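Entry 14. Ran structure prediction on the chain below.
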Amino acid sequence: MSDNKGKQFSISQEFKNWSSLKNDRWIYGAIEEHFGTKWKIQLDKYPNGSALPYLSCESSETGNWSINTACDLIVDGKSIGTGLRFKFNGNSKACSSGYFINNDFRERRNDESFTIEFQVKITEMTGIEENKSRSFDDDVAKKSSDVVLVVGDKKFYVSKLLLTFHSTYFESLFSESFSESGKSEIELKDIDPEGFQNFLELIYGMSLVDDDTVSGILKLADFFDAKTAIQRCEDFLLTGSEKSIKDKFEMANKYKLENLKKKCISGLKTGSEFRSIIPENANEIDNNTWKELLSKSASLL
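Output, structure tokens:
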């Protein structure tokens, strides 16, 4: 059984011109990949105008596999169902689970559209091997590597030059003043192997930051003082992330992401949002940030 901590994602699909789709029984949304499996939303449409939305999961695994989920279903921003338990399993490559919506679908006009969203939390996952954009222990990696970094029970065959270019931590580690610099294998202690894989994929330009990886990458990028990786994480949080304003502000404050911090503060719209970002320990926020928060709070009163 894999570690499912933090395995959460959101998938949404806009369905346009509802009434014009009356002759289509099944309507399919776009495919998204999360945690080694492919997901999509599909609708089973009935003649009376009602619909049954399904969350579909497909795995390329040929053996037994299973994924248990707890899902929240949202239609046009309105919660329809919470904590819905869907289980995907079996020898087949694809399976799905549905939840009946019995309102708001009977009188759709041709020009109307609506959005269905599933907020998914994976509670248990077995038999699924999460795909990696790049292998750091295959023959290609070994051939181009000049050092092996040992992280937990995994070995990463990497380039000193590339890591030195991106990180002052590795620049120091590989310098002649450190005893480790001459070793062919160097152990990195207290580092999560999966997080390190994601960090390396970003450094090597093989993958982009997403909501599943941004927190772990930021943690390592800060530790390794990898400024380019930090900037890419901030850029994603500014423009592409669907994380809550609370989560974004926590990361902005912790890792000193000033542009993201300013955007979070300026984007506060309600008193409840304001209260949600205030930490229990007031000392976690510096004086300048407190001044900006207090100034913003005046407009929310």
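The longest strand covers residues 113-126. Will compare against last week's run tomorrow.
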